[in-house]
Design a protein that fits this description.
Elements lengths: L8 E6 L6 H12 L2 E4 H14 L7 H7 L5 E4 L6 E4 L2 E2 L7 H11 L2 H21 L2 E6 L2 H5 L5 E6 L2 H12 L7 H17 L12 E4 L5 H19 L1
Parallel strand pairs: 1-6, 1-7, 2-6, 7-8
Antiparallel strand pairs: 3-4, 4-5
Helix pairs in contact: 1-9, 2-4, 4-8, 7-8
Bound molecules: adenosine-5'-triphosphate (ATP) and the ligand Nc1ccn([C@@H]2O[C@H](COP(=O)(O)O)[C@@H](O)[C@H]2O)c(=O)n1.
Ligand L45E5XJ5 binds next to α2, α4 and α8.
Amino acid sequence: METAAPSAVIVAIDGPSGTGKSSTSKAVAAKLGLRYLDTGAQYRAITWWMISNGVDTDDAQAVAIAAGKPSIVSGTDPAAPTITVDGLDAAGPIRTQEVTSKVSAVSAVPEVRTLITELQRSIAAEAAREADGIVVEGRDIGTTVLPDADLKVFLTASAEARAARRSGELRGKEAADLAATKAALIKRDAADSGRKTSPLAKAGDAVEVDTTELTLDQVIECVVTLVEEKRAGRK
Ligand SMILES: Nc1ncnc2c1ncn2[C@@H]1O[C@H](COP(=O)(O)OP(=O)(O)OP(=O)(O)O)[C@@H](O)[C@H]1O
Ligand SMILES: Nc1ccn([C@@H]2O[C@H](COP(=O)(O)O)[C@@H](O)[C@H]2O)c(=O)n1
């Protein structure tokens, strides 16, 4: 039987695209000595594999049949998270516009979600057994993947703020204009919220943090405090 270390803490951070989940989760995990899991990277990785192997990502049946083929491995050091697919470093390729535009269709396929959810639960269980715990970020962590997490946080921000953050990132690369960036993230959120299986949603017992007017440091501090309060309450 798997036994968690008594002090291990499991933190679930969910929210729409561009709300600051990755930046916040990485920093909180690093500050508190926890592991970190980017579940979006796993869905991106399987999407990249589908594209690279000629699977039509709009064909849910074809995606379902192929879903078990790639081997996806996530490294959970918050200072240097990694993702490989069949042993290949996928960190760069999973961030292309092509993957971003196709990932919602792939992640909506129930067979994909079943496989990736199992993988996520086994990574979290290992972190609870062998480390001080983990911060897991995504869309359905608090509702489906880890419903018994010690702390659930749901980050939000206005679409304008999120688009401005994303446009800032893209400057000099694929420099999209603000309106196009905003439209793309609203479209992806609608697809992620509207799918039948495990949609993007706030768990009933999650703490909602609106980051629109907060700096990243303020959000990090807020979540660190929430984790510390949870830990103190367990003593
Ligand atoms: N509170 C904040 N204020 C300003 N910029 C922020 C804030 N939080 C995050 N950012 C910036 O916004 C961008 C998006 O953040 P991040 O990648 O962490 O979001 P995300 O929710 O993980 O997005 P996605 O779900 O699309 O992966 C990054 O450039 C990050 O530095
Ligand atoms: N728990 C999750 C996490 C992510 N997804 C899907 O992956 C896409 C990419 O996520 P990013 O955080 O890297 O932007 C996202 O749009 C979802 O389609 C998911 O379904 N569940």
